[in-house]
Amino acid sequence: MEKVRRVERVVALTKLLVDRPHHLFSLGYFSELFGAAKSTISEDILTIKQALQSFGLGTLETVSGAAGGVRYLPQQEAAAINGLLTGLAEQLKSADRIIPGGFLYMSDILFNSQLMLQIGEVFMTRFQHLAPDCVMTVETKGIPLAFATARAFNVPLVIVRRGSKVTEGPAVSINYVTGSSRRIQTMSLAKRAVPAGARVLIIDDFMKAGGTARGLVDLAQEVGAQVVGTGVLVATAEPQEKLVEDYVALLILHAVDEHTKKTDIRPALV
Amino acid sequence: MEKVRRVERVVALTKLLVDRPHHLFSLGYFSELFGAAKSTISEDILTIKQALQSFGLGTLETVSGAAGGVRYLPQQEAAAINGLLTGLAEQLKSADRIIPGGFLYMSDILFNSQLMLQIGEVFMTRFQHLAPDCVMTVETKGIPLAFATARAFNVPLVIVRRGSKVTEGPAVSINYVTGSSRRIQTMSLAKRAVPAGARVLIIDDFMKAGGTARGLVDLAQEVGAQVVGTGVLVATAEPQEKLVEDYVALLILHAVDEHTKKTDIRPALV
User: How many other CB atoms are there within 10 angstroms of residue A40's CB atom?
Assistant: First the structure.
């Protein structure tokens, strides 16, 4: 009987931990939930950690001390990331994705929730050292990916609105110039959405010249926050000089040829 | 040694299953991944199923036959749902959420990814019998919740754009009248986003008169799809008559009093 109970406890612990990446659970919480000694829970945690690691499914981090506990870090291994991005690049090369104007139809991928949650964990792995306090994006297509990244970090998602239609109390607006088409646009952020001093990670689906990302950096500064990193799913190879200095792109779009229906997009392997 | 390996396999299986709700894994896939007989995997699955159920963490469904396998269903128990909604209502009553005009600031909740993933599982539990093929919402604030619901069902998310700015190939636009302010607005949907005949579940953050939801129903019909259900996080008690007939609201907003700073919002308990 004891053996059955242990494996059941391990299943439940695994489920609770992996469901909430970066959420710190106290051993006392688990001890009460399962009616087991903290030392028993500690042994279970060690077992789970070893199992997750040996299958490349992330790891557990134990934080000691009175405010300590254990949390799940959904770190992805390089081989898994490379496999994922290579597959994604292949998918995006499909001729029927090319839209008049030389655009790529990507919404089915951007709005695939389980895939985006995986990519969010890729960004978590890449940006973990930056310890962001929130993930910021601008509506609309990048929201699922930013949401997934915020989930992997267990930090709030901040959505900047286009235009000045914020109805959420005092807001800050800026004008910015889109890098490629050189149009002036407005974007706004509710002041209470970002605490002053916050470390902001920008996540978006696509970057061409980087005008939007540049606008987000300026907007963050306007509310007293600090952008610590920028990640995009796809960046174009041209222009090489973007309006933001540091960014991580998972896929590089080199060319879309409307006539031959060929798309040259490559994974940025790690 | 055998014992250790079994518990490690169970941990990895649990993680893989709960990470992708409604995704059907074949026993052959797991058998190859873990180098174990299908009968062994079947035993593990039974153990995991019992453990998840006994802790109220959802269940596993086994599908027999050649195209069969096993999948995780993140069903929430009534007590857990009621606890979640009661806590949420309490949070929303906070006086500092009242924005001039009698609106409630809800973005911190709507953009809390781990909370939204939970609410998405509540909607999955409520709408499971409808077997939707996709989850549809309109930008912007309902996107995280719709994303989370799409994840729980493992179906595509469809985001309808306001205005006619769709740059994703052929699109369908409709005009609709917002139920409360009686303004005429436009919304658009890329045709390729929804297959004809699809069973559509509409998810949104807020419903007052239901004009937006009504517009989504019309838009879905326009592309040959069929709305099978509508779920919103918050619906107002007034007007009682909404422009859509059937909907599920998790919280009912009865009144926001700007003077007394009191908000009357109640969970719709199951």
Answer: 16
User: Same domain, yes or no, for A165 and A199?
Assistant: yes
Q: What is the DSSP letter of A20?
A: S
Pick from B108, B110, B121: nearest CA to B148? B121
Contact A107 B161 (CB under 8 A): no
Kindly state whether residue A1 falls inside one of the protein's structural domains: no
CA atoms within 13 A on the CB side of B167: 8
Are A14 and B19 inside 8 Å of each other by CB?
A: no
Average per-residue pLDDT for chain B: 94
ipTM attached to this prediction: 0.95
Q: Do B57 and A16 touch (CB under 8 A)?
A: yes
Determine, for residues B111 and A19 on separate chains, whether the beta-carbon distance falls below 8 Å.
no
Q: Which of A58, A107, A154 sits opposite B190 (nearest CB)?
A: A107
Q: Tell me which residues of chain A have a pLDDT lower than 50.
A: 1-2
Q: How far apart, in whole angstroms, are the C-alpha atoms of residue B110 and residue B142?
A: 7
The domain boundary, picked from B42, B73, B104, lies at B73
**Is B129 a domain residue?**
yes
A8/A226 Cα distance (integer angstroms): 44
How many domains would you assign to chain A?
2
pLDDT 10s digits, B154-184: 999 999 998 876 677 889 999 988 766 778 9
Dist CA A64 CA A82 (whole Å): 34
CATH number of the domain residue A249 falls in: 3.40.50.2020
d(CA B40, CA B222): 50
What residues pair up with B162 in beta bridges, in sequence order?
A: B187
Chain B (88-107) residues lying within 8 Å, Cβ to Cβ, of chain A: 99-101, 103, 105, 107
Q: Which domain holds residue B27?
A: 6-73
Which site among B1, B5, B11 would you substitute to test the A interface, given the most A Cβ atoms closer than 10 Å to its Cβ?
A: B11
Average pLDDT over residues B53-66: 94
Give the SS3 label for residue A242.
Answer: coil
Burial of B82 (0-12, 13-18, 19+ CB in 10 A): middle
Least CB–CB distance from A156: residue in B15, B47, B111: B111
In this structure, the answer to whether residues A120 and A184 fall within a common structural domain is yes
- For B58, left (φ over 0), alpha (ψ -120 to 50), or beta? left
Confidence at residue B1, expressed as pLDDT on a 0 to 100 scale: 42
Would A248 be classed as within a structural domain?
Answer: yes
Pairwise CA distance, residues A131 & B224, whole Å: 46
CA distance A153 to A73: 8
Q: Is B161 on the interface with A (CB under 8 A)?
A: yes
Length of chain A: 270
Q: How far is CA B182 from the centre of its chain?
A: 28
Q: How far is CA B23 from CA A57, A243, B148, B155, B236, in A?
A: 17, 40, 15, 10, 35
Residues A66 and A127: their CA atoms lie apart, in Å, by: 28
My answer on whether B161 and B239 are in the same domain is yes
